[in-house]
Fold these 4 entries.
Entry 1:
Amino acid sequence: MMLQEIGHWSVRPIELTGNNQPEAVITLYQEISVTSESSEVGLSDSNNDGIDTERATTIYKPRTMIFSDAGALLYSEFSQDANTSMTAIADLGDGGPAAIVIDEPNNYSFKRWSAKHQRFE
């Protein structure tokens, strides 16, 4: 059971705030649905729940949190609009810290850490 739970989250150390100390980028994968690739119930429907277990696909939504090197929460997708998610971290090539790439409903945006405002903007 524990091994199965560990498989649904990841931790990546990466420097995002410009202080030369890595932040912890934690991504949790929230199970949102189970779908079947076939509309017909096959012989492998052992639970009689209408889902062919050999062809079932679980869909996960990633949720990201970023903690500073001191443990302060810098970014969380658990406290903001559920329609946005961090999809990547990008080096913009201008010498500044890496930016997070946010997938919004109609576009993508880059956000960098603002030391002045203490948030990603």
Entry 2:
Amino acid sequence: MRHDRSFAFPPRPAMLSMLAAAVALSACVAQYRVPAGAPSASVRLLTSTDENTSFTIVDPARCPDPARPLVLAGTGRQLSAMGRERSLDMAGRSPEPPARTRERLVEAGRRIYVAVTSAAAPPLPEMRCAAGVSFVPVAGAQYEIRYQRDETASQCSARILRLQPLADGSARLTAEPTQQGFRALRKDYVCQVL
């Protein structure tokens, strides 16, 4: 007896694509949320690239094996599916276009570790660049985390600025005195700064 499988199963390449998509979707990462009742600060996250960039919170509490990073925000073509963007009506304007800017809340009163990672887009060689910054946000304060990366993703940096709102809606930017840097390409690198 001859079986006609064309009605029951898609062609092999299509089946492999569907399987890969299912695996990718099942490996969703948890998003960062300020704990209920905790004081918070606002942070504007900026990237200098249109390529996928992720901002994650790394918690060193379980070092030497820290927990999986929590996604604070993402930018880029594939990361736009992370949900509707909301504005916190922060002071001043972003020097980057809206597609490269996100505004989020972070817990205040304790050191927060933010890892920023992005990758070069084809046809450039596959390279990832990561920079880590930590700071102690003050409740109600506003900050910017600025991520800069070259086109090939071979060099990158991140820095934190504090926004001081002015009467006209703009903001004065000052260096954040509690900022510290850390290597961020792997989650366990945060343990080296403790």
Entry 3:
Amino acid sequence: SPDPGRAWLVCGFLVVAWLARLALGAAVQCLDGNKPCENGGTCVVYSNGIAACLCQPGMIGEHCQFQDPCHQSPCANGGSCESTLRDGTVHYQCTCPKGFRGQDCSLFDACASKPCVNGGRCTNWNGRYNCTCPSGYQGRNCRSDVDECRVSGLCQHGGTCLNTPGSFRCQCQAGYTGQHCESISTPCAPSQCLNGGTCRQTGDLSYECACLPGFEGHNCEINIDDCPDHMCMNGGTCVDGVNTYNCQCPPEWTGQFCTEDVDECQLQPNACHNGGTCFNTNGGHSCVCVNGWTGESCSENIDDCQTAVCFHGATCHDRVASFYCACPMGKTGLLCHLDDACVSNPCHEDAICDTNPMNGRAICTCPPGFTGGACDQDVDECSIGANPCEHFGKCVNTQGSFQCQCGRGYTGPRCETDINECLSMPCQNDATCLDRIGEFTCICMSGFSGTYCEININ
């Protein structure tokens, strides 16, 4: 069998590049005794008739005819090697780890740590790096800013030079512009007028602005406040705009000048809560609350326990337009003013005792099989209505219940189930069992007889 330690991989009868491209004729070569595999390679034929060469370590190619350059581990410093076959020639390529470069990863990559900053370009040179700095920076790593203002005359016509990181800026005298203050300034190019104002030159270095409505100032930089003569009514707040104003109205008013009343009764949700009736008024509204609620919007539940008359020891729980008295042990009634008759356990065992809240008397709810005021009387289920036992079973009354004595062939609490005597498989010798009421019949195979077909008559 093929050596699993050799570099080969077959997946769905596809052999990867180490074993080279496959041809259908290769299987015939193996079967004919030819030796297409060189350098000790083994010719392997797969179940689909395709053949391939399984090469010895260190050899690659369709016929194992090439030495694998990666077999000698040419990549240094932990680099990974990959062999390729192009135009009949074997090549290899090293993928170097971080910090190394070169064909065999033997050269130290000094630029791997990106030592050049501020846009500097890094180049390797004999294991060291060199930074080519952009304009405005200098130093081994391009960290130092060049002070361009040390060069006199950089800013013309009396301009002041201001150094900036990586560059400079000229602060020009009035009438001059440009990077070096080299150009005579035209007042309206660009326009100094803001907010859509129109610039008009009035002299060599002077101008004036024609402002749009709503603005003023030398450069039209001031928005005129239109609110001093506003017409906002009913507590509305004036909000200045551009050559206009808006009125911000309180919730009760609307309209341009807050003069239109808001009908709160038409709002959703309704201004009056919990079923209250809303009545609109000029600049407001009023609510008529249903019983149990109060407040401006009928959202406050009236505490009925403030006027409740629960007896001493009871706990009052407020409800909507009512209250509930939680009684202490031994007391009952709407106000806990009655003695609880259930304390003395007047009801028979398993019965449920409740107290009449009007008079404090006990009310017994009987379990099945018992009746009477105290649930102490047994119900004779056998004498009321139809016989509860099916299939002519005999009903026997018991305390709180009844039992059924079933006739032959039936079972169950009410004799409702037919006993299948065939379940015990009484018939022998492959006979068929026929279930009947209270009995069974065996239908014997030919040659057998007897109640259970147990007799061989042949």
Entry 4:
Amino acid sequence: MKKHVIPAVLAIVVLIVMFAASCSDSRKSLELLSGDVIPSSAKLFGVSGEAYKISDIKSKYKVIFYLDSTNEDSMKRLDCISKTISLLNCKDISCLIVWEDRIPVEDIQKAGIDKEYNYSLKNKVSLSESKPNAFLLDEKNKIKIVTGYSYVALLNELINLNGEKDLSVKAEKMIVNNVSKSGDYIDNNKGKTLLMFMSSGCKICRVSEEVVSKNIDSMGKKINIITVRPDFDTRHSYDKNLEIDPQQIYFNIFCHKQGIQASNRKYPMFLIVNNDYSVEKLFTDANEAVKYVLGL
């Protein structure tokens, strides 16, 4: 009799565990899509443990950056989120960083992000299986955009939502300030800066890299030079002053300011910027940019 009872008991225990696990998973996983509304049952917990609902945060638009502290790609995205909050936050847009598990306080502080932007779901619910992810919500907390891994479309929408506000001045100040912290940046006091938006991802880009590389020393005697590269690119030997452009936020801000439509935005792009942050010249051809700089 005992021979039959023990296997039966074990089988029942296994079934109970499997059933409990499946119930837990279905309860936690929402996988929100465009058009969905974030349910009020999804409680957000601040750094001090206080509980909120998404409806408690009043704003015309909300951006939720959805991350997991155990996910390497999520942690790498903090630089982009920090710059997004600094450059694109305005009275109509509230930015939230929602962690599925816990708030990594030391990491967000290192990234220069205020703790007040951070909330945790404490593993009680999952908004999306994929991370990093982001959501743009309207006033009724209805999801307008789900980004998936790439934030580029979301950032362009946020740039548009800022209206006629000139974001390029703040962006250039941030670029110069960040590069200055490296200790390698030397302002030659000529009052002009060449921002070179470069990428190695296409044939014309590689040709432009060669042109710039051959003339970089001569150009550096005429003007301050900063290379701005997307985060998927690699540093080149002539990138003496380099600023990483996470998710192409800088690139799209300057393109928007210059009236370049999203479908026409291509690398390389060269901007001659005056000391009052006005753009003196824009070039998309490396030879023309080099010729202009050497003639200063």
